[in-house]
């Protein structure tokens, strides 16, 4: 028997569920694992407001309908993520942020990854490149193969 899928997912990946682009089918494949009770997709609770902010930017640019945004964000709330309050991550996040010169927001995802000993999936190439030669397990989503559902 294989291990269940376990990752930290950042907003740059998660938002692709609703902002349709070429990686959306791969995100759908990843999120389909949420139906496996042993699978875990970890997020810091700031994930939700980051996704909301991305949607807001698309609405402001006239590329997203406000009613569709409401419906999609309601769907986002229903996904079975394992959410961690950012207050539980801030001490590790500030150390990571200062040491590696990344935002505290990004450092929360990295701290959560480290705390759960699972890879962080991101599409943030700057974050990936900054941390690629460290002990942190940060993987570019485009480079990861999502296994089939067991």
Can you describe this structure?
Helix 7 links the parallel strand 4 (120-122) and strand 5 (138-140). 48% of the residues lie in helices and 12% in strands. It has helices at residues 11-14, 24-32, 46-60, 66-78, 90-100, 104-116, 125-131; strands spanning 6-9, 40-44, 82-84, 120-122, 138-140. Helix 3 (46-60) runs antiparallel to helix 4 and helix 5 (90-100) packs across helix 6. The protein has one domain (6-140): 3-Layer(aba) Sandwich (Rossmann fold), CATH 3.40.50. The chain has seven helices and five strands, in the order βααβααβααβαβ.
Blueprint of the fold:
Blueprint: E1 6-9, H1 11-14, H2 24-32, E2 40-44, H3 46-60, H4 66-78, E3 82-84, H5 90-100, H6 104-116, E4 120-122, H7 125-131, E5 138-140
Parallel strand pairs: 1-2, 1-4, 2-3, 4-5
């Amino acid at each position: 028997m294989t291990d269940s899928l376990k990752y930290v997912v950042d907003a740059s990946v998660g938002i692709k569920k609703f902002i349709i682009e070429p990686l959306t089918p791969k995100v759908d494949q990843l999120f389909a694992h949420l139906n496996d009770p042993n699978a875990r997709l970890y997020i810091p609770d700031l994930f939700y407001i980051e996704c909301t902010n991305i949607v807001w930017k698309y609405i402001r640019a006239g590329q997203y309908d406000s009613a569709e945004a409401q419906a999609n964000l309601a769907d986002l709330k229903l996904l079975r993520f394992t959410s961690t309050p950012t207050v539980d991550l801030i001490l590790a996040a500030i150390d990571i942020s200062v040491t590696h010169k990344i935002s505290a927001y990004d450092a929360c995802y990295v701290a959560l990854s480290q705390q759960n000993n699972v890879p962080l999936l991101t599409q943030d190439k700057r974050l990936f490149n900054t941390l690629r030669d460290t002990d942190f397990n940060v993987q570019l989503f485009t480079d990861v193969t999502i296994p089939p559902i067991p």
